[in-house]
Design a protein that fits this description.
The protein has 238 residues and is α/β, with parallel strands linked by helices. It is 37% helix and 19% strand. The strands form two sheets. It has a nine-stranded mixed beta sheet with strand order 4-3-5-2-1-6-10-11-9, sandwiched between helices. Helix 1 (28-42) links the parallel strand 1 and strand 2 (47-52). The protein is globular and about 50 Å long.
């Protein structure tokens, strides 16, 4: 039987993975598939926190470039992550996975406020905790929110789920000669300006010696494989 090499993890999902094969919004089949993989990992006894982006619904940065005031645009993006968090919660609970959504922006009718001690207690009780609303502040990405929450809950690792196999020296979608790293340091990512996570997120992980594993979510079962220690994707550390 598979056994996890981690006790507590922070899974970072982009909003785009919830679109499935669509170009916008939420594909319920895609959400259900991801929920099934999270359930399988939870059954191994792993404590799971999740941060999900909102790019499938609204991108604050892009709206700002088109003329919208940055603070308003970022808050709209944060609200999009709450919508995604609720969709993921619903899919998980249909699979009998006890789940809590905690939002950095207070909206008590639909989510708990983020409280670090309460989040840890939920995890200790075997509940999946979805962290929504980003950091609650404009000018910070959901990658930074993932790094922050991972540090706060004392996660062993951040699992950065993407549409490619790992971290490359150039865009693998545009460049056929792109080479993937099996391991890379925080400093190399920053100096090479690789678009893995934003600089604030990487710096926070570096300062707290928190490893990141970047892997392909589109291959079914990869979350479980990564958590069970299979060599795959790219490991980021000092």
């Amino acid at each position: 039987m598979d056994k996890s090499v981690y006790k507590r993890v922070l899974l970072k999902l982009s909003g785009e993975v919830l679109m499935g094969k669509g170009s916008y919004g939420i594909d319920l089949d895609a959400v259900s598939s991801i929920a099934g993989e999270i359930r399988d990992v939870a059954r191994l006894g792993v404590e799971i926190g999740v941060v999900v982006g909102g790019g499938n619904i609204f991108r604050g940065f892009e709206a700002n470039e088109m003329g919208m005031e940055r603070t308003s645009a970022d808050y709209m993006g944060m609200l999009a992550t709450v919508i995604n968090g609720l969709a993921l919660q619903s899919a998980l609970e249909r699979l009998d996975v006890v789940t809590r959504v905690q939002s950095a922006i207070e909206m008590k009718q639909i989510a708990e406020p983020f409280i670090q001690r309460r989040a840890v207690r939920h995890l200790e009780k075997g509940r999946v905790v979805i962290f929504a609303g980003g950091t609650g502040n404009p000018y910070f990405t959901t990658d930074t929110a993932a790094s922050l929450r991972a540090v706060e809950i004392k996660a062993d690792v951040i699992l950065k789920a993407t549409k490619v196999d790992g971290v490359y020296d150039k865009d693998p979608v545009k460049c056929s000669d792109a080479k993937m790293f099996t391991e890379i340091s925080y400093n190399d990512i920053l100096t090479r300006h690789l678009k893995v996570m934003d600089a604030t997120a990487i710096s926070l992980c570096r300062e707290n010696n928190l490893p990141i594993i970047v892997f392909n979510l589109q291959k079914k079962g990869n979350i479980r494989r990564v958590i069970c220690g299979k060599k795959m994707g790219t490991r980021v550390r000092g």
